[in-house]
Design brief:
binds phenylalanine
Length: 469
């Protein structure tokens, strides 16, 4: 295959079976698309609130460790499977197992991922909807100069109104489906080039503002001074699960993107770059948010509403706040959107390949089902807030549908998917193939291989056993 220069072939003409496959127009294009998938609500919405809930420093340290010893090696493994297989995740797995005469059951590894992406997208879209609705709220000036109480009330007003939530969830899902139905084309690639750096700059601006609150030092020690007495075993599982979630691992997204990656690109360097950028955005979000939390006497463990209750306060007090606030939520929507697209894409691709549906039908079908399931998450924020479907099990006590979906995907399915990837690549694929594919210098290869074979599976297994038994 020759290198295609067309962007269309790059991201989206993804349905391996029918479309002529090409490669990313450049290494940068892959980095941008993978970063677009990785950077999303996980970094800006989820990371700060789970850090707050789990007591700060010690949790952040475990999370960083998980990125380094579990996340990066698995990202490399996933990208490699994709590039070697050159198809959609399930079929790439099939090709690799056939070539090495391994059990075909391995392709269910990609199946776990497709299920996880479906479940994640259902609630991801609801949160994406919050972000969409805040674009309007910020633009209307309703947030400027308001007290923490008023801003808190605006947020609870949104969560308490299933009708409004449904509208915004629908808008977000429609945006996602609109892109997936057409294949992602070059527009996305170009948009990411501009919007990702813009998001970065805006976050830096917010951190700058946070420094003026007088509570920056307190936030830095909250985030970076580990106090292990605050860390629970569940906290460790959450940190591990979040490493997978935030890097878009354990579900074949990176396999799908890797399948378009040119042979001469270094998988290791690229994976490290994407992971570092993703982690950077999360840490910046934390540094922007926690000074505002402390300055206003808010609760770090406030839960999923944290950014929607803190950042508007900052925007409300800074010059041109409505403008910056609007811009921020636009960029947040965009970050969430590129992630949501990467969640829907593998599912649609699988329906096309497996069930022979055309792209329109498969997008409508998969997106429509996700949308429908999303309604359960919406209701669990209000009408069903006291409904804990699996409440009879101690581990799930008090968890609403929304909490359960989050728990099941991030803390169970993604680490499980990642564990299987590590075992498959570390123990079943031929070492020679890995060496060829990665072309790393000796010691680096040994390090990666050792970590993937021993450290990653053992770490994931231990965390699992502690929490689930
Ligand atoms: N990584 C995305 C985020 O942090 C979420 C995501 C998970 C996207 C899994 C794709 C696959 O928001």
């Amino acid at each position: 295959m020759t290198q295609s220069t067309s962007n269309a072939a790059a991201i989206g003409a993804a349905s391996g079976a029918s479309a002529k496959r090409g490669f990313w127009s450049s290494r940068m294009a892959f980095v941008l698309a993978a970063t677009g998938s990785a950077v999303g609500l996980g970094n800006i919405w989820k990371f700060p609130y789970i850090t707050g809930e789990n007591g700060g420093g010690a949790f952040v340290l475990v999370y960083l460790l998980c990125i380094a010893v579990v996340g990066i090696p698995i990202m490399m493994a996933e990208v490699m499977i994709g590039r070697r297989g050159g198809r959609s995740p399930i079929n790439s797995m099939r090709i690799l197992t056939e070539r090495d005469k391994l059990s075909l059951r391995w392709r269910w590894l990609a199946g776990v991922g497709v299920l996880a992406s479906f479940l994640i997208l259902s609630f991801y879209s609801v949160i994406g909807g919050w972000a969409v609705s805040y674009v309007g709220t910020a633009a209307s000036g309703a947030l400027s100069g308001q007290s923490a109480e008023v801003i808190g009330a605006i947020f609870s007003g949104l969560l308490g109104d299933p009708g409004k939530l449904l509208i915004w969830h629908t808008v977000f899902m429609a945006l996602t489906m609109a892109v997936v139905v057409r294949g992602l084309r070059g527009g996305l690639e170009r948009a990411v080039t501009i919007l990702m750096p813009a998001l970065f700059v805006l976050l830096l601006l917010l951190v700058g503002y946070a420094m003026t609150t007088g509570y920056f030092g307190q936030a830095v020690s909250f985030l970076f001074q580990p106090d292990f007495s605050k860390l629970t075993t569940e906290g460790v599982l959450v940190a591990l699960g979040h490493a997978f979630f935030t890097l878009s691992l354990g579900m074949g997204v990176m396999m799908a993107y890797g399948s378009y990656l040119n042979k001469n690109v270094s998988i290791a360097k690229t994976s490290v770059l994407v992971s570092v950028m993703d982690t950077g955005v999360a840490l910046l979000a934390g540094l922007a948010i926690f000074p505002i939390v402390f300055a206003n006497g808010l609760e770090p463990g406030a839960g999923p509403g944290l950014i929607f209750q803190t950042l508007p306060l900052a925007f409300g007090q800074m010059p041109l706040g409505s403008l910056f606030g609007t811009l921020f939520f636009v960029l947040l929507v965009f970050a969430a959107w590129t992630s949501a697209i990467s969640l829907l894409e593998p599912l649609v691709e699988w329906l096309e390949e497996q069930k022979g549906m055309n792209r329109l039908v498969s997008t409508l079908g998969a997106g429509g089902l996700c949308w429908l399931l999303g309604i359960a998450s919406i209701l669990s924020l209000n009408e069903w807030s006291g409904f804990a479907p699996l409440g009879m099990f101690a581990a799930f006590e008090g968890k609403t549908v929304f909490d359960l979906l989050d728990y099941l995907t991030a803390n169970i399915l993604l680490p499980l998917g990642g564990l299987l990837v590590a075992v498959f690549v570390g123990w079943f694929m031929a070492r020679q193939a890995l060496e060829n594919e990665l072309s790393l210098r000796g010691p680096w290869f040994t390090l990666w291989y050792g970590v993937l074979r021993y450290v990653t599976p053992v770490a994931v297994a231990i965390v699992f056993i502690y929490n689930l038994v």
